[in-house]
Amino acid sequence: MAGSSVTTGVLFVGAFAVLPAPLFYAVGALLRRNRRTATTQATGIRKARRFGYGLVLVSALTLSVIFSPFEPLSTALRPFLGDYAAGAETVAVLLGPVLLGTLGVYLGVFPHWQSVRDIDQSMRDAAKSFLKAALLFLLTVALTLTLVVAVPWPMQLVVATAALLAVPALMPAVVMLLADTRPLAETHPGLLADFETGDISVHVLEAKSAKVANALATGLPPWRHVFVSDYLLAELDAEQSRAILAHEFAHHQRYHIPVRIGGLFLYGTLWAGAVFLDVPYALWGGVLFLVPLLFGLFWVARRTERDADRIAAARTSPEAMASALWRLTELNLISGNRGGFASKRKNHPSTLRRVEALGVPPGPEKVAESETVVRPAKRPWVTGQQSPDSSWWLGVAVLPLQAALVAFLAAYNWTREPALSGLLVLLLGLLSGTLIVAPILTASLFFDARAVRDSDDEWDPSSYRYGAVGVLQFFAFAGGLVYLVTVPVSLYYLWKRGKLDWLATAHLRRVGEKIR
């Protein structure tokens, strides 16, 4: 039994190591083929990468629940870690697949990113940079979780609180550990002539090979830093560079960083305390309110960005700040305008909105560029059509039909053979829902939503979000509650596509023909 458990665990870890890279290489190729500009291609690759990371995390969490406790690993760690072995085993079962899977996703889309961005960074260097950052992050998380599991209450709350405080405080050291840096005064002494640095240190990040045009303010008083990439300094003129530096200095001078993390720190401390004190529903209640908290923190972050823009514009000029923002948008291949839900889940406002807030007219060419919808190009076989020429929606209809069939058979046999009814739910509902329906639903939602986006249809569904609903169906084996999400979403999708009207009309037509 132990040998079988080890073999199964090794197979799953091997799947995390091998499958993501070719899968997301294919996804990246598909995205590039159907997007018409470098900016829209870069946007698609970023979305694919985020989707891949989320998929890996959800899969790793599921497997950690299935395989933990993994006794062979606990036995191997116990001579070295003693009482800490159980906590370390739980963390390793979760974080090991996460590291392998996210690395696979990153390397899978990297060749496409390399081509779109026209960067000199090799895949080997990219993998080294990713692994350095990922290992540092995962080791920090592993150490914190291991200590939290091992120590008694109330030391658990102390450890969790210390970890929350240590992350922003030590971030300057993390940046300097992960990247080569040098003082800005050595390379561009004139840029700091008008700034009172005080306890703020300014460093240049070497990022030309990756073409990263960015600047960031990190750290807490009295150890505060500003980092600016060498690629940014090479591509911006002196006035634009000063505006960016003034923006980052404003974050420190207005204490934006403590303001941003204050809400998260307070929430995390209260949530951890409630969980450790066994307050009823504390764990899932905290998870439930985490989403609105994050949107609230994004709102605060956008406000602080506008505040820093305003101060930087007063220190240099509104025109210099606006031109620097537009230049960064162009260098990083990002959309100049985001609206709707996309703007609510970002910690930076869109460039167009930031420039408008400064009172600087963006110019007709900037308005035209920023108002271009980031979406796939028309394919030759759907150009000019008013509705998507796609039959993938038929795969979406499979799920409601399967759920209705299982419910009918289970109800029909319940009064006669309850045991048979339960077997039908297990075989037809959960197993077929995972092994047969889930792959069909995932592919159908993804490709049909993409076809809708390619058409002239007014509805603009996200293929990634609906594809994620299909991925959720893979967890039907764990219980029927998944159907409470996937079936309503599928029916909503079919309704938006007008297919429920089509089915109803076709049925009424057949009834009318029979009557005649």
Structure characterization notes:
With about 525 residues, this protein is mainly alpha-helical. The protein folds into three domains: about 150 residues, no CATH class; about 200 residues, no CATH class; about 120 residues, no CATH class. Strands 1-2-4-3 form a four-stranded mixed beta sheet, with helices on both faces. Helix 13 crosses helix 14. The longest helix is centred in the last third of the chain and has 37 residues.
Layout of helices and strands, plus pairs?
Elements: H1 2-18, H2 20-33, H3 38-67, H4 71-81, H5 85-117, H6 123-150, H7 155-169, H8 171-178, E1 181-183, H9 184-187, E2 200-205, E3 215-220, E4 223-229, H10 230-235, H11 238-253, H12 256-276, H13 282-315, H14 318-331, H15 341-344, H16 351-357, H17 364-370, H18 393-414, H19 418-454, H20 463-472, H21 483-496, H22 499-515
Parallel strand pairs: 2-4
Antiparallel strand pairs: 1-2, 3-4
What class do helices, strands and sheet pairing give? mainly alpha
Which spans of ≥5 residues are poorly predicted at pLDDT below 50?
370-386
Strand content: under 5%
Number of domains: 3
